[in-house]
């Protein structure tokens, strides 16, 4: 960290104090952490950027993440970037009322923001506590993930860990994961998420150097983009192979569909379709959309008109039984978000004539469930489906429609 306090309570900022004065102070005074009051050491080596470090291990939130050069330098780069933008940022502001220290504080258009540059995995509960602490004081946190945490699988496919996915934010009806690399001095904005499995998602990455980013914290609006052929083959592979791996979630899913005389290889192509709002679920699209169909439109509900509220009741039950898991995002606290995702799926089914909306928020299933179990016919059905409805599948917006 770059700030510490003296015994008098005076705050010392390394970047506002001359190096010579700091050397003299290091010999004559003690420095303390503003957050836990524990002793800190002023490190002025040549290899690592000048900083304060805790004298010994303490239960201090400020010490929860050992600050690497990658983190320290990134924090300074963002600080000076904001100064160049004509703003008046504060390095490592300490908020005594919630006993938290941020990386950078700044006021933009009369709103106070705190920027947190998170470079190492830390406890999820601590992240949530810090976020709720800021929000309780009307401080808007901007979490920026260290780029070194991002793991690409193939071109257009990202491995998204539970830790990394927390930093996804809904910004002007688009889900974005902002990350920053202090080595390249460049932002990486991940967007257009279409998760295929629990931890693998198709997405687009747009890069901007600090020099190119001219309006902070505004982020460009992106249209959701996805090569449908990639998605179609990914879902087909999931149905044919991945679903047979011996896991609890796979076993539970197979048990459910077999009870309804369905086969994983021959599930209709309107189950497992790509939607931008699917990022709200850890459970893959193929699974939760199957549950919507079998719970709401098959079995005792076959041929019946069903209300949206009843569909949500079934969905709630799946969540309670842990058949469907929601993705926990730091700044997504509104339960309506996942309800919109379910409505988004239903409205897509209406647009492709699988479901009819008899009256607002009342639905009747009209889709076909084939039981001939012929691979060639199944693949033709899938190919025709994605070709016919390509424009519909790519024209969805987050939170489109209303919750009745």
Automatic annotation (TrEMBL):
Superkingdom of the source species: Bacteria
Pfam family, one: CoiA_N
Location of the Competence protein CoiA C-terminal domain: 229-369
Residue span(s) of domain Competence protein CoiA nuclease-like: 67-214
Residue intervals of the Competence protein CoiA-like N-terminal domain: 16-62
UniProt-recorded name of the protein: Competence protein CoiA
Annotated organism of origin: Niallia nealsonii
Source species taxonomy: Bacteria, Bacillati, Bacillota, Bacilli, Bacillales
């Amino acid at each position: 960290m770059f700030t510490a306090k003296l015994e008098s309570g005076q705050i010392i900022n390394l970047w506002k104090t001359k190096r010579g004065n700091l050397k003299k102070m290091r010999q004559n005074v003690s420095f303390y952490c503003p957050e836990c009051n524990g002793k800190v050491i002023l490190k002025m080596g040549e290899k690592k950027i000048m900083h304060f470090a805790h004298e010994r291990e303490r239960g201090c939130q400020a010490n929860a993440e050992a600050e690497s050069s990658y983190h320290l330098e990134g924090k300074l780069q963002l600080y000076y970037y904001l100064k160049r933008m004509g703003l008046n940022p504060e390095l490592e502001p300490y908020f005594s009322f919630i006993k938290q220290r941020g990386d950078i504080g700044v006021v933009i258009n009369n709103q106070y923001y705190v920027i947190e540059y998170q470079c190492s995995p830390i406890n999820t509960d601590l992240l949530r506590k810090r976020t709720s602490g800021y929000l309780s004081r009307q401080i808007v946190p901007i979490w920026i993930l260290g780029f070194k945490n991002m793991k690409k699988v193939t071109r257009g496919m990202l491995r998204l860990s539970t830790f990394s996915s927390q930093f996804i934010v809904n910004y002007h009806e688009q889900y974005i994961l902002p990350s920053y690399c202090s080595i390249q001095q460049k932002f990486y904005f991940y967007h257009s998420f279409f998760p295929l499995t629990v931890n693998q998602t198709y997405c687009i990455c747009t890069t901007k150097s600090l020099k190119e980013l001219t309006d902070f914290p505004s982020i460009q609006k992106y249209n959701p983009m996805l090569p449908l052929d990639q998605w179609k083959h990914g879902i087909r592979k999931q149905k044919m192979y991945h679903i047979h791996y011996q896991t609890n979630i796979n076993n539970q899913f197979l048990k459910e569909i077999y009870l309804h005389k369905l086969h994983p290889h021959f599930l209709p192509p309107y189950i497992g379709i790509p939607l931008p709002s699917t990022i709200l679920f850890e459970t893959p699209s193929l699974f939760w959309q199957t549950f919507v169909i079998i719970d709401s439109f098959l079995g005792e509900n076959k041929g019946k008109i069903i209300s949206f509220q009843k569909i949500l009741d079934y969905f709630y039950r799946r969540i309670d039984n842990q058949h469907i898991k929601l993705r926990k995002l730091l700044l997504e606290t509104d339960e309506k978000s996942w309800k919109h995702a379910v409505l988004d799926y239903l409205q897509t089914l209406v647009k492709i004539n699988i479901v009819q909306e008899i009256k607002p928020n009342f639905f009747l299933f009209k889709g076909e469930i084939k039981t001939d179990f012929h691979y060639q016919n199944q693949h033709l059905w899938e190919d025709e489906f994605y070709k016919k409805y390509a424009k519909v599948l790519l024209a969805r917006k987050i939170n489109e429609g209303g919750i009745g």
